[in-house]
Amino acid sequence: MPKIPQQVISLGILFLIAIGGFVIARKFFIPHSFGLYGHYRADAVEEIKKQEIVYAGAKACYDCHDDIYDLKAQSYHKDVACEVCHGPAASHVENPDGVLPPIPNDRKGCAICHDYSPPRPTGFPQIIEARHNPGKVCKSCHNPHNPTLPHTPESCSACHREIYMKKSISSHASLECATCHTVPEGHLTSPRANEVGKPQKREFCGQCHAEDAQVSKDILRIDLKTHGERSLCWECHYPHDPETNT
Protein backbone atom coordinates (compact mmCIF):
# COMPACT_ATOMS: atom_id res chain seq x y z
CA MET A 1 0.00 0.00 0.00
CA PRO A 2 1.55 3.32 -1.05
CA LYS A 3 2.39 5.77 1.69
CA ILE A 4 0.23 8.92 1.85
CA PRO A 5 2.39 12.02 1.34
CA GLN A 6 2.83 14.21 4.42
CA GLN A 7 1.56 17.33 2.64
CA VAL A 8 -1.73 15.56 1.80
CA ILE A 9 -2.16 14.58 5.45
CA SER A 10 -1.48 18.17 6.54
CA LEU A 11 -4.01 19.54 4.05
CA GLY A 12 -6.59 16.98 5.16
CA ILE A 13 -6.17 18.02 8.79
CA LEU A 14 -6.59 21.70 7.83
CA PHE A 15 -9.78 20.92 5.87
CA LEU A 16 -11.20 18.92 8.82
CA ILE A 17 -10.46 21.82 11.19
CA ALA A 18 -12.07 24.32 8.76
CA ILE A 19 -15.20 22.17 8.25
CA GLY A 20 -15.49 21.54 11.98
CA GLY A 21 -15.11 25.27 12.73
CA PHE A 22 -17.79 26.08 10.14
CA VAL A 23 -20.25 23.59 11.67
CA ILE A 24 -19.65 24.94 15.17
CA ALA A 25 -19.89 28.60 14.05
CA ARG A 26 -23.11 27.84 12.17
CA LYS A 27 -24.69 26.46 15.33
CA PHE A 28 -23.79 29.55 17.36
CA PHE A 29 -24.34 32.33 14.81
CA ILE A 30 -27.40 31.27 12.78
CA PRO A 31 -30.62 32.21 14.66
CA HIS A 32 -32.79 29.29 15.69
CA SER A 33 -35.77 30.70 13.74
CA PHE A 34 -33.88 30.99 10.45
CA GLY A 35 -35.54 28.94 7.72
CA LEU A 36 -38.78 28.38 9.61
CA TYR A 37 -40.87 30.21 6.96
CA GLY A 38 -38.24 30.60 4.27
CA HIS A 39 -34.72 31.86 3.75
CA TYR A 40 -34.90 34.51 6.47
CA ARG A 41 -35.13 34.90 10.25
CA ALA A 42 -38.74 34.18 11.25
CA ASP A 43 -38.50 36.20 14.49
CA ALA A 44 -37.95 39.33 12.39
CA VAL A 45 -41.63 39.24 11.39
CA GLU A 46 -42.77 39.61 14.99
CA GLU A 47 -40.17 42.29 15.68
CA ILE A 48 -41.36 44.33 12.70
CA LYS A 49 -45.00 43.97 13.80
CA LYS A 50 -44.12 45.51 17.16
CA GLN A 51 -42.63 48.64 15.58
CA GLU A 52 -44.69 51.82 15.72
CA ILE A 53 -46.43 52.72 12.46
CA VAL A 54 -45.29 56.18 11.37
CA TYR A 55 -46.25 56.29 7.69
CA ALA A 56 -49.85 56.63 6.61
CA GLY A 57 -49.50 56.03 2.87
CA ALA A 58 -50.53 58.27 0.00
CA LYS A 59 -54.12 56.99 -0.11
CA ALA A 60 -54.78 58.36 3.37
CA CYS A 61 -53.64 61.80 2.18
CA TYR A 62 -55.85 61.68 -0.92
CA ASP A 63 -58.96 60.90 1.13
CA CYS A 64 -58.87 64.42 2.59
CA HIS A 65 -56.79 66.38 0.08
CA ASP A 66 -58.48 65.32 -3.13
CA ASP A 67 -57.98 68.74 -4.74
CA ILE A 68 -54.20 68.44 -4.37
CA TYR A 69 -54.36 64.84 -5.57
CA ASP A 70 -56.12 65.90 -8.79
CA LEU A 71 -53.48 68.58 -9.40
CA LYS A 72 -50.51 66.32 -8.60
CA ALA A 73 -51.89 63.41 -10.64
CA GLN A 74 -51.40 65.48 -13.82
CA SER A 75 -47.85 66.59 -13.04
CA TYR A 76 -44.36 65.08 -13.18
CA HIS A 77 -44.57 64.62 -9.40
CA LYS A 78 -47.50 62.21 -9.67
CA ASP A 79 -45.35 59.26 -8.55
CA VAL A 80 -43.74 61.12 -5.63
CA ALA A 81 -45.49 60.11 -2.40
CA CYS A 82 -46.71 62.94 -0.16
CA GLU A 83 -44.59 61.74 2.76
CA VAL A 84 -41.39 62.06 0.74
CA CYS A 85 -41.63 65.85 1.22
CA HIS A 86 -43.93 66.16 4.23
CA GLY A 87 -42.51 63.37 6.37
CA PRO A 88 -44.33 60.54 8.21
CA ALA A 89 -48.04 61.35 8.52
CA ALA A 90 -49.60 58.54 10.57
CA SER A 91 -49.99 60.80 13.63
CA HIS A 92 -51.58 63.50 11.43
CA VAL A 93 -54.14 61.02 10.09
CA GLU A 94 -55.04 59.99 13.64
CA ASN A 95 -55.26 63.61 14.84
CA PRO A 96 -55.67 65.91 11.80
CA ASP A 97 -56.12 69.16 13.77
CA GLY A 98 -53.65 68.46 16.55
CA VAL A 99 -50.69 67.22 14.50
CA LEU A 100 -49.83 69.04 11.28
CA PRO A 101 -47.22 67.65 8.86
CA PRO A 102 -44.23 69.93 8.20
CA ILE A 103 -44.22 72.05 5.05
CA PRO A 104 -40.73 72.31 3.52
CA ASN A 105 -39.51 75.90 3.57
CA ASP A 106 -35.93 75.44 2.44
CA ARG A 107 -34.12 74.37 -0.72
CA LYS A 108 -32.49 71.19 0.57
CA GLY A 109 -35.44 68.87 -0.04
CA CYS A 110 -35.80 69.78 -3.72
CA ALA A 111 -32.04 69.60 -4.24
CA ILE A 112 -32.03 65.91 -3.29
CA CYS A 113 -33.58 65.15 -6.68
CA HIS A 114 -32.92 68.26 -8.74
CA ASP A 115 -29.35 69.27 -7.87
CA TYR A 116 -27.02 68.47 -10.75
CA SER A 117 -25.77 64.87 -10.87
CA PRO A 118 -24.30 63.30 -14.06
CA PRO A 119 -25.95 59.85 -13.60
CA ARG A 120 -29.45 61.32 -13.80
CA PRO A 121 -31.26 60.75 -17.12
CA THR A 122 -31.15 63.42 -19.79
CA GLY A 123 -34.27 65.58 -19.75
CA PHE A 124 -34.57 65.38 -15.95
CA PRO A 125 -34.73 68.96 -14.60
CA GLN A 126 -31.44 69.74 -12.86
CA ILE A 127 -29.91 72.88 -11.39
CA ILE A 128 -26.74 73.95 -9.65
CA GLU A 129 -28.37 74.75 -6.33
CA ALA A 130 -25.74 77.30 -5.28
CA ARG A 131 -26.25 79.35 -8.47
CA HIS A 132 -29.95 78.89 -9.26
CA ASN A 133 -31.78 81.84 -7.66
CA PRO A 134 -29.69 81.68 -4.46
CA GLY A 135 -31.55 82.65 -1.31
CA LYS A 136 -35.00 82.03 -2.80
CA VAL A 137 -37.20 79.15 -1.68
CA CYS A 138 -38.01 76.82 -4.59
CA LYS A 139 -41.77 77.01 -4.03
CA SER A 140 -41.71 80.79 -4.52
CA CYS A 141 -41.40 80.05 -8.26
CA HIS A 142 -42.52 76.41 -8.56
CA ASN A 143 -45.72 74.78 -7.32
CA PRO A 144 -44.45 71.52 -5.75
CA HIS A 145 -47.70 69.70 -6.56
CA ASN A 146 -47.43 70.70 -10.22
CA PRO A 147 -43.89 72.03 -10.76
CA THR A 148 -44.23 72.54 -14.50
CA LEU A 149 -46.88 75.25 -14.12
CA PRO A 150 -46.93 78.21 -14.22
CA HIS A 151 -43.12 78.40 -14.44
CA THR A 152 -41.50 77.71 -17.80
CA PRO A 153 -37.75 76.95 -18.09
CA GLU A 154 -35.83 79.88 -19.48
CA SER A 155 -33.05 77.83 -21.08
CA CYS A 156 -32.20 74.32 -22.24
CA SER A 157 -29.80 73.92 -19.31
CA ALA A 158 -32.75 73.70 -16.90
CA CYS A 159 -33.38 70.13 -18.06
CA HIS A 160 -30.23 69.19 -19.95
CA ARG A 161 -27.68 70.19 -17.34
CA GLU A 162 -25.17 67.43 -18.15
CA ILE A 163 -25.10 68.35 -21.85
CA TYR A 164 -24.90 72.05 -20.97
CA MET A 165 -21.89 71.49 -18.70
CA LYS A 166 -20.03 69.48 -21.34
CA LYS A 167 -20.78 71.98 -24.09
CA SER A 168 -19.74 74.95 -21.94
CA ILE A 169 -16.10 73.79 -21.89
CA SER A 170 -15.95 72.65 -25.52
CA SER A 171 -15.23 74.47 -28.77
CA HIS A 172 -19.00 74.58 -29.33
CA ALA A 173 -19.57 76.61 -26.15
CA SER A 174 -20.64 79.74 -28.04
CA LEU A 175 -23.25 77.93 -30.14
CA GLU A 176 -26.87 78.27 -29.09
CA CYS A 177 -28.73 74.97 -28.90
CA ALA A 178 -31.15 76.15 -31.59
CA THR A 179 -28.22 76.50 -34.00
CA CYS A 180 -28.27 72.74 -34.52
CA HIS A 181 -31.64 71.75 -33.07
CA THR A 182 -35.08 72.80 -34.26
CA VAL A 183 -37.10 73.55 -31.13
CA PRO A 184 -40.92 73.37 -31.39
CA GLU A 185 -42.83 76.21 -29.75
CA GLY A 186 -44.34 73.96 -27.07
CA HIS A 187 -41.13 72.14 -26.13
CA LEU A 188 -40.37 74.19 -23.00
CA THR A 189 -43.80 73.58 -21.48
CA SER A 190 -44.39 70.05 -22.78
CA PRO A 191 -41.04 68.56 -23.81
CA ARG A 192 -42.14 64.95 -24.30
CA ALA A 193 -44.98 65.92 -26.62
CA ASN A 194 -42.82 68.36 -28.61
CA GLU A 195 -39.41 66.79 -29.15
CA VAL A 196 -36.58 68.78 -30.68
CA GLY A 197 -35.29 68.00 -34.17
CA LYS A 198 -31.72 66.90 -34.85
CA PRO A 199 -29.52 67.26 -37.96
CA GLN A 200 -29.87 64.35 -40.36
CA LYS A 201 -27.07 64.97 -42.91
CA ARG A 202 -23.31 65.54 -42.70
CA GLU A 203 -23.68 68.63 -44.84
CA PHE A 204 -25.15 70.37 -41.81
CA CYS A 205 -21.80 70.22 -40.00
CA GLY A 206 -20.17 71.18 -43.29
CA GLN A 207 -21.71 74.64 -43.02
CA CYS A 208 -18.94 75.43 -40.55
CA HIS A 209 -16.34 72.71 -41.09
CA ALA A 210 -16.18 72.19 -44.88
CA GLU A 211 -13.17 73.65 -46.64
CA ASP A 212 -15.28 76.20 -48.49
CA ALA A 213 -17.43 77.22 -45.50
CA GLN A 214 -17.93 80.99 -45.23
CA VAL A 215 -17.04 81.25 -41.54
CA SER A 216 -14.00 82.11 -39.39
CA LYS A 217 -10.74 80.57 -40.54
CA ASP A 218 -10.01 79.51 -36.97
CA ILE A 219 -12.68 76.79 -37.20
CA LEU A 220 -11.42 73.29 -37.97
CA ARG A 221 -11.87 72.45 -41.67
CA ILE A 222 -12.18 69.10 -43.50
CA ASP A 223 -12.69 67.81 -47.00
CA LEU A 224 -16.35 66.86 -46.68
CA LYS A 225 -16.18 64.54 -49.70
CA THR A 226 -13.37 62.33 -48.40
CA HIS A 227 -13.34 62.77 -44.61
CA GLY A 228 -15.22 59.88 -43.01
CA GLU A 229 -16.54 58.87 -46.42
CA ARG A 230 -20.30 58.28 -45.97
CA SER A 231 -20.35 58.23 -42.16
CA LEU A 232 -22.37 60.86 -40.35
CA CYS A 233 -20.22 63.28 -38.37
CA TRP A 234 -21.80 62.43 -35.01
CA GLU A 235 -21.00 58.74 -35.46
CA CYS A 236 -17.39 59.63 -34.62
CA HIS A 237 -17.64 63.04 -32.93
CA TYR A 238 -19.87 63.93 -29.98
CA PRO A 239 -21.41 67.29 -31.05
CA HIS A 240 -21.65 68.68 -27.51
CA ASP A 241 -17.97 67.99 -26.85
CA PRO A 242 -16.35 67.24 -30.21
CA GLU A 243 -12.76 67.28 -28.92
CA THR A 244 -13.24 64.08 -26.93
CA ASN A 245 -13.61 61.89 -30.02
CA THR A 246 -11.19 63.50 -32.49
From TrEMBL:
SUPFAM superfamilies: Multiheme cytochromes
Keywords of the record: Membrane, Signal, Transmembrane, Transmembrane helix
Pfam families assigned: Cytochrome_C554 (PF13435), Cytochrome_C7 (PF14522)
InterPro entries (UniProt xref): Cyt_c-552/4, Cyt_c7-like, Multihaem_cyt_sf, Multiheme_Cytochr_ET
Domain Cytochrome c7-like stretches: 107-161
Name of this protein: Uncharacterized protein
Membrane spanning residue stretches: 6-25
Organism encoding this protein: Candidatus Danuiimicrobium aquiferis
Matches recorded under Gene3D superfamilies: 1.10.287.3080
Cytochrome c-552/4 domain residues: 53-87
UniProt keyword Membrane, yes or no: yes
